[in-house]
Structures are given as structure tokens and as C-alpha cells.
Task: structure prediction
Amino acid sequence: MIKFFRKIHLWLSVPFGIIITLICFSGAMLIFEPEITRALKSDVYYVASVKESPLPMGELMETAKASLPDSVSITGVTVFDDPSRTYKVNLSKPRRASLFIDQYTGEITGRYERIGFFSTMFKLHRWLLDSANPHGEGVKVGKLLVGISTLIFVIALISGVVIWWPRARKNLKCSLSIPLKKGWKGFWKGLHVAGGMYALIFVIAMSLTGLTWSFDWYRSAFYAVCGVEHTPRNHDQKTTSNNRDEKREHQREHKDGGRHHGGERRHEGGRRHEGGGRRHSEFGRWQQVYNELKAQNPDAPEITVSSEKASVSLGNTGNGRAADRYEFNRRSGELSLATKYADANEADKLRGWIYSIHTGSLGGLFTRILWLIGSLLGASLPLTGYYIWIKRLLKKKRDCRA
Result:
């Protein structure tokens, strides 16, 4: 049985080893991307100086809007708990576009742009540089290879444990040590065996969660195993929001019908703007909503306000995407809780946990450091495996000559 698992371990690892190394290494490079990006572009992400109070949010949004082409609109603004962080203004396009504005001066500090190195690492990690548009039609060869290689990696890790266990039972301490006094051969073999065991939990977690982005069948099975039915992102929230929108529209039509019942002269005379003829800014109530949410959630790491909606992040550990969601009346600013995170769609919750586990952010800085070490060890496994394999081939060749 052990011989069978040795063959499985070897002949699956040899053709896919280099790809596995590239996936693990590029993933490791992305773990601290946010911190590195903010450090290298501090003039974009941080204000020049923190003042007593920021400018009104409506004024800031109007300034940002004036700098945009007519085809691009502002979809929301994210305010961070750190007063030295610039406001993040979310834009309608392109995807995930945003700009940053100094809330104390109104100066636009820059736009979101991924650093070239991290952009390359991300494309390598997801698609082996095959395509920057993974959602297009047709089979993406790079994405498929990443998925297959990750699946092979999981099988190789499991077969490696099966091979390792009989020896570990006899001398666990020795099997978990990396010898430094037995030359390079002993070091590389120890790094492959012991390093694989140390990294096992982390790389298995990263691989099993990462596969949910590679194969639809796997994602459905993964959700089913977790007892959750896979649904589109924010399915419940969208349904609830659509129902509310329909109700509002019905009420609006009813009011308009009553208003016009007495005749058409008022309509013909011209429609009055909100507030007795004065047209309100689309951002007019954003500051009020933010102030109220901040007062209710003083420790929230970030709060996002958008058109008639807002969200309050619940923390940077655990499910980093967990948030309570609110709705508000754009005329009065009256705020109401739409969906508490505890009552959110189970699929959305699981989706957030998958991302947090895959990136190592579930435990904050500590787990991210562990994930970085685990990723680098995972990247080394195929390389040390190649070294051991080639050494054995050369030894057999010498023995045959002798």
C-alpha cells in the first residue's frame, strides 16, 4: 500500500510541481499587499495632516464628482476608523474603481491602482498569466491549470502524510526535524518531509478554499458539505431591496395619483424640486447617516455610505467581510437596519469565511504571518521533491554502471 501511495505522490507531483510552486509563491506575495501598497503610496492613502474635523461629506463628494467624466458616477464612500486615512470614493466603473480624497482639504490624492508587481502576482496566482478577464466566454486554460494543479496538490499532500506516518510512529521527533549537520542532501530531504508536515494545515486550508474559485462543481459540493445552498452574491439582500423598492414605487404612484386627481394644471405648471423648489444634492444626507452610524458603532473599522444604503464592518478578524447593512431615506436621512450580519444569507457568510481562510486574515496579523510561512513552505515542497527525486535517479544510474 505504501508503494502505491509513493507512486501516486511522485507521478502526480512531477508534472505539476512547478505550477504548484508558482501558485504558492504568488499567493504568499499577495498576503501583505494592502500594507505594502499603503506604505509605498502613503501620499494617496494618508492625509498630509490630521485636522480637528473633516469637511462635510456632501461637499467632498461634489468635489470628487466634478473631477469625473459624465459616464462615471460615485456609488459610495468608505470612511476608515483611522483619521489619517483618506476617504475612499467608490466609482461605478471600471470594476472596483475608486479614488481617494483628503477629507480635511478636499484634495483628491489619487486613484486606486494596483502596483505592477502585485498585479502580476495576482494574475499568476489565479490564471498563470493566461487572462486578466476570467469571466469571459470560453475555457481559460490558465485558470483550468491552476484548478487541476491545486487538486493534485491536495492529493499529493494526503499521499505524503500516508507515506510519512509509518516512520513518524517510530520516531516522531526525528521525522519532524530538519537536520543541519547531514549536508545538503539531509537538509533538503528534512525540509521536504518536516516542512510539509508543518505547512500541511495551512496549505490544505488554502487549497480547499481556493478550489471554490476554480470549479463550479467543487463550489457547489463545498457549500453542500457545509450545509449551505449556494446562491448568487447578496441574493437575500437584493431580493429584500427589490421588494422594498417595489413598495416605495407603489406608494409614490398612489401619492402622485392623489395629487393629480384634481386636475393637470399643477403638473403642466412645472414639477417642483424637493424641499420646496430647491434641488437637493444626491449626497445631501450622507454625512448625517455616517454620523449616526459612527455614534452607534464607534469601534467599526470602516463604514460605507452609498445611495440610500450603508454598511458597517464588524471587524478585521474572523469573517473580514462581515457587516451590518442599513437603508435610509435620501430626503430625510431616516435610518433603518436592513440586515444584521447574524441574519444575512448563509451563502454570503460562507463566502466571506472562504475568503478569510484562503487569505489567512481570519486571525489578524498573527494568522497572516502563519499563512505567509505556510505558503512559502508549500512553494518549496515541489522544489525539494525534485531535488530528492533527481538525486535518486542519479544514484540508480551510478549503481547500474557499477
